[in-house]
UniProtKB/TrEMBL annotation:
CDD domains named in the record: L-Ala-D-Glu_peptidase_like
UniProt cross-references to InterPro entries, sorted A to Z: Zn_M74/Hedgehog-like
Native source organism of the sequence: Rufibacter sediminis
Gene3D superfamilies associated with the record: 3.30.1380.10
Protein's UniProt name: M15 family metallopeptidase
Length: 142
């Protein structure tokens, strides 16, 4: 089955680096699970709000406009998603984030565009060696 982005997801990719947009669009075509773009480019005000709320650990987020004028990160969620189940750590819902990650890494590899996932910040393939987990988050490695 081929999935397509809703107009809302397409709008949320505005201001995101074209390389990341390419990876996200290609991943959606390859993914066995449908997903949506929850957030791309962020304002400083939005980042401050997330940082103060403990949902982000940095004010130097790649969601913010970088020196090239683009945001370098996106947050992707399975579609549809049951956030109550996600917040409880329900593995049936959480595994879908891993499916998105698989599609993203496969697409990035084929396109030759390096990315990082918010579940494996150091890129060593281990997700349990971190203290902050951000399953929806993907960013360019530049």
């Amino acid at each position: 089955m081929t999935h397509i982005f809703s107009p809302k997801s397409i709008d949320r990719l505005k201001g995101v680096h074209p390389d990341m947009v390419l990876v996200v669009e290609y991943a959606l075509k390859r993914s066995s699970t449908d997903f949506s773009v929850n957030e791309g480019l962020r304002s400083l005000e939005r980042q401050t709000e997330l940082f103060k709320g403990g949902f982000s650990k940095t004010m130097a987020s790649k969601h913010l406009k970088q020196s090239d004028g683009y945001g370098h990160a996106v947050d992707l969620y399975p579609y549809p998603v049951d956030m109550a189940r996600v917040n409880k750590g329900d593995w049936r819902e959480c595994i879908r984030f891993g499916m998105i990650a698989g599609a993203m890494f496969s697409a990035a590899k084929e396109l030759g565009i390096p990315i990082r996932w918010g579940m494996d910040w150091d890129g060593d393939g281990q997700t349990l060696d971190h203290t902050f987990f951000d399953a929806p988050h993907f960013e360019l490695v530049k």
